[in-house]
């Protein structure tokens, strides 16, 4: 007997999307001087809103507002008072959680189950966690009186729009900095809703400024000589460009960039759990995850069995309406990203790998890509080396633990990795040898404000989360 | 024929490079004249080339798995052994520093401080993780910890302080398990090679520290742009070169440290060690 799922759509009535949005500068929504752009719903390509585009003069204005707020209000404010603002923000996020989750799913395409159960709760947790640090910085191990850096310019990606905002703004504000943040061009709406939360919190004007736009806006921000620190999450290519722009300026920089994580399955692993972890590792958030487990390394002796179980599990994944509470995989965020995923998948087939996807009906409109697994993959293939940033898994095999580690580390990236085995000693042995900043053993894609996150090698530098996450925002 | 024979002609030392535990000459066959404080000839130092720099990086990479895999206790003992060996050659270093222009008292003080610095850093080897790591109280049934790990291959441009400055930039890099290529002071390179003789007899595995002498401005760009170097210490870089070197370093996103030269006798603090550490966070579910 086959059970069918009835549609279970989350109502979008909870969120009021305005026809147009301005920039959030010095506590006010203002017009931008660039040509406004449209944010669309990737699930059906409908236009959601016109969004202001900040040009250099707008960025300059935002940086000046942040500087004034830093000099006159936020910098001098005692940590215990800053803390209370951040606690307020955390509470407001919780109070408006459903609105934020629905808007995130509409603007980004991610399933409501994820925005509701992962993204937004973590956003509140992030503010709550760093609120508590604001008046305890002297105990954080960075000297008796650590000072803020000043004005931070922050550029974030489209895969976790509101969560990345929280990762950037919460520690910056806790340490006494003010910020100018640029959300991604395709997902600006929750950041603008967050601006409203800042107003509800009575956050002093200029402490948080949000400038929307595309690459040009981001370039104007990171190159602005009025900022003291740049924090960027995004591609390694852009991260390199930013590092070059900042060369010789003495400005601080933290980068959280791409990845090509190995997810290692040893033969003694609990295979059903491992399969869940593989699925979560690569299909969570449509694979739009820098730390996604995009290279499955499975021990040869169990490779066939793992693949069989994986395919059976993939056949149960529900792809479709992001607002449906039963949806596992939502829409690809943009036409541009869909083209990139298609291009790399085509390269995989052209280079000799074998693609498999479960039978699944994709909606006619919007941007969609069926969950895909590639076998017969060589380490030299592009799909084994390049970040696809989509629901595409490349499977490689190994015979010995040494070979698993060598293959896992055979990448210029070093953000994350996974290990599946029932042997505790083997977990620790493997974890020690993986050159990656986050290692998930018998789990995957777990995040917490108390746990430092960030990369080795070309996955960037600096940590977000935990006590370590303060360092990038303190003059130490 | 001279009618005044010397009582005994001194046997001079040939100053070479230090790569992979051996003392090769520059493959380029080049050398440059090092003079004493009064401008008199002291020695010909090797003038390292691009090829020497690349050989040194290869040796440094080769040494990394072994050195980073040692226990911290073992690394601490080896750093302490370096202090012992340096103490034993105290007079030799005092002599070299005096030839480079230091007064007798200053030279002795500098050697003492250099020995003490090795001792200070030796004790850090098995304490860094306790100070920089963490058990993370995540909101779920997971055991979660963060531990520091060495960044990898570090290229160090040493400052002109020929012994204490050199020790102060090398020790914090290797104590945590990194391996390094260090470009010695250009005007005063000789103590760096003599220090290499100390390192070579202290149970420090070959390749953990590699010393190049020569023209900083010539060697530094090759190290800054080398794709198998993970981090760069610009302490000894000329101010006008910093921008270009940082830009080169962006090619593979090297960690760049621009330490201030604020007097080497001050308390070093931990910044030079933590600059070359990565943080690894490990998660595991708890359950039965």
From TrEMBL, chain A:
<protein>
    <submittedName>
        <fullName>Aldehyde dehydrogenase family protein</fullName>
    </submittedName>
</protein>
<dbReference type="InterPro" id="IPR016163">
    <property type="entry name" value="Ald_DH_C"/>
</dbReference>
<keyword id="KW-0560">Oxidoreductase</keyword>
<dbReference type="Pfam" id="PF00171">
    <property type="entry name" value="Aldedh"/>
</dbReference>
<feature type="domain" description="Aldehyde dehydrogenase">
    <location>
        <begin position="29"/>
        <end position="475"/>
    </location>
</feature>
<dbReference type="InterPro" id="IPR029510">
    <property type="entry name" value="Ald_DH_CS_GLU"/>
</dbReference>
<dbReference type="InterPro" id="IPR015590">
    <property type="entry name" value="Aldehyde_DH_dom"/>
</dbReference>
<comment type="similarity">
    <text>Belongs to the aldehyde dehydrogenase family.</text>
</comment>
<dbReference type="InterPro" id="IPR016161">
    <property type="entry name" value="Ald_DH/histidinol_DH"/>
</dbReference>
<dbReference type="GO" id="GO:0016620">
    <property type="term" value="F:oxidoreductase activity, acting on the aldehyde or oxo group of donors, NAD or NADP as acceptor"/>
</dbReference>
<dbReference type="InterPro" id="IPR016162">
    <property type="entry name" value="Ald_DH_N"/>
</dbReference>
<feature type="active site">
    <location>
        <position position="256"/>
    </location>
</feature>
